Amino acid sequence: MNPPSEAVAASPPSLPEVHRSVAVPNSAGFLRKLFAFMGPGYLVAVGYMDPGNWATALAGGSAFGYTLLSVALVSSLMAILLQALCARIGIATGRDLAQLCRERFPKPVAYPLWFLAEVAICATDLAELIGTAIALQLLFGIPLIFGVMLTALDAFLILWLQNKGVRWLEALIFGFIMLIFGCFAVQIVLSDPVWGDVLRGYVPSATIVTDQTQLYIAMGILGATVMPHNLYLHTAVVQSRAWQDDEAGKKEAIRFATIDSTLALALALLVNSAILITAAAIFHTSGNTEVAEIQEAYQLMSPLLGGTLAATLFAVALLLCGLNATVTATLSGQVVMEGFLRFRLSPVMRRLVTRLIAIVPAVIVTWYYGASGTAQLLILSQVILSMQLPFAVIPLMMFASDKGRLGALAAPRWQLVLGWASAALIVALNLKVLGDALLGD
Question: What is the chain's mean pLDDT, rounded?
Fold first, then answer.
């Protein structure tokens, strides 16, 4: 793990078009400085409310009521911690996670990690592709298979956004997130959940581990919440701020970047909780305990709630989530490819390559199995993400624990203890799911 010094010097920053492009007012007050640092956290938060989250939250809420809210809460707390560590190592080292893996691991380790990161990004893109296509079908009646193909065109949205600058990109993402939050706020009011049951749902239940179906969906929620590509993305995009390049400046940048990501992920938790609460309040309480398909959820909302408003807002929020997640998946793909391989593609080309890889299984499943197949594919994509998590989280924790390199910017002991505990929990749950699958229990 000791790279030659020239390897570090030869590696340019990932996302060079936005690197240190946002000025930080050094003499300003707390709020102005916080505003300067706010943005990267919301780019990361998008991945915590993408269409893959919808599939797992709908399945969990309809089947088990509010029970899996505790999984969403624990997953979000883990995500807040891990993303704070991402911001720390990105600022402290000036490197992103992909670059650190390439520079500090031997090639037989680094290249498999790159491949697994690409698999995770394709799984993420698969969920976004299907979710966006479903939203287009619900809102405009576009057949699912044509919607799947139309999503390849969002590469041009990425190009336009990146040309506008990172602050414009962050502002649009934040606006979409607030619209999504507003849609679900109205849905929760219309679904009228029992708030005592909701609060009890945040208390962990033993059945989550002992019941194989609950565990499978819980793993999907975990994979849909703590997403591998977000760990790579955050370490790179946090470097878009031009903080003072000394120890005091970096400490201040770490503090503000942590506040940014914590606030953004708290908002993402509210959105994820709202999806699950809505599913539990509308479907589980009415006896519809097997609603895993987004289309079925949409169709049931109107008759169960006695109006079309909730269903329409549901579809609008889904479309916004799909478009939002498209942006961050592309940025993550650039970070992973540039960091591991030192190979650059234009954002449009990178998007088209990733999307074409994801389109193939989506088109096949949509053609042969229709909506039910896409629902299963959505949940499976999130479980795949969960299986990839250790291969991003463990390197992250190794770098965050390297006090010899981080020096005065090293993470406090409590963060490292909780971070390693999170990594151990992720590995243990993955082994449990694999064991159940192999033994057929």
Answer: 82
